[in-house]
Amino acid sequence: MKKAILIIDRGSREPEVRQELEDICSLVKTNGGYYYADYCFLEVLPPFIEEGIKKCQENGADFITVMPYFLYPGMKLKDSVRQSARISKIKKLNLVITKPLSYHSMMTQLVMDRITCLKKEKSIRYSDLECDILLIGHGSSDKNARDAFVYIVNTLRPFYRAVKFCFLELDKPNIQQGLKNLLDNNPKIVILMPYFLHKGAHIKRDVIADVNEALKKQPFENAFMTSHLGVDQKLINLLIERAREVEEKRLGFC
Fold first, then answer.
1. Could you tell me if 191 and 132 are in contact, meaning their C-beta atoms sit under 8 angstroms apart?
2. Backbone φ, ψ for residue 191 (5° rounding)
3. Res 125: pLDDT
4. Average pLDDT over the chain, rounded to whole?
5. How many angstroms separate the CA atoms of 32 and 52, rounded?
6. Using only C-alpha atoms, what is the Rg of the chain?
7. Strand, coil or helix: 97
8. pLDDT tens digits, residue range 169-180?
9. Distance between CA atoms of residues 175 and 164, nearest Å
10. Which residues contact 58 (CB under 8 A, 6 or more apart)?
11. Which residues of 124-140 are buried (b: 16+ CB within 10 A; e: fewer)?
């Protein structure tokens, strides 16, 4: 059987996003033993979902695993699942759809890895239990998305002095409020973690601008920001695990 995996991302015009997705597809194809791996976008610009599925077929795949590449079970995830299911039904495809990345311990570990990496790069000698963490999410009007984000925040709390959260847009608290919530507790050090998959416009410009503005209003010299989630072997392993869950139910084997 020639299995393909298709990653559905929200969509971005930033070249770094496409490069990250290409790297992820290459690693998932190799590590997961897929015949073909590719990505498509839900919105913003092509290739869109229908084209992504068509390319899988044109490249000889007779079984397609669709991975909605989203951190939260929000509206974007639901849209990608609905579109994929509709196309599969119309074309009578042998196609399965995975769960998103939310509610998995690997995501907690990825955040901790980013914090550990930053501490090493900046020669930060404070122990984890002396560090205050601010997790920055995108934000959504969907309560399920907020719940999934807060779940990650809560799993981090046993490991650090304090863990607070905030959102770039669409929800509260915003970045300025989130930073103030941390600084009100007189931290020794603040580590900000942008909980975003890609180096898109939000990471390259929006988050940095809002953090800098917040620090002007609430000055604090000992504040550092980690990298985003990006391309990581643990994330690749999680993608393959999510794929195997639905493939085994349909096929009875990996």
1. yes
2. -120, 120
3. 96
4. 96
5. 19
6. 19
7. strand
8. 999 999 999 999
9. 11
10. none
11. beeebeebbbbbbbbbb
> What is the CB neighbour count within 10 angstroms for residue 172?
10
> What residue spans of 33-104 are helical by DSSP H?
49-58, 75-91
Identity of residue 129: L
Q: What angle is formed at CA 111 by the lines to CA 119 and CA 8, rounded to 5 degrees?
A: 140
Q: Which residue has the tokens 């009875």?
A: 252
Residue 244, H or E segment:
helix 233-251
How many Cα neighbours within 13 Å face the side chain of 109?
10
Tokens of 82: 């609905």
Tens of pLDDT, residues 59-79 = 999 999 999 999 998 888 999
Dist CA 21 CA 52 (whole Å): 13
For the chain, the straight-line distance linking the first and the last C-alpha, in angstroms and rounded, comes to 11
Q: Which two tokens stand for residue 142?
A: 């969907």
Give the model confidence (pLDDT) of 3-54 as tens digits. Answer: 999 999 999 999 999 999 999 999 999 999 999 999 999 999 999 999 999 9
Cβ atoms of residues 235 and 229 within 8 Å:
yes
Mean pLDDT value across residues 115-127: 97
Binning pLDDT at 50, 70 and 90, where does residue 252 land? confident
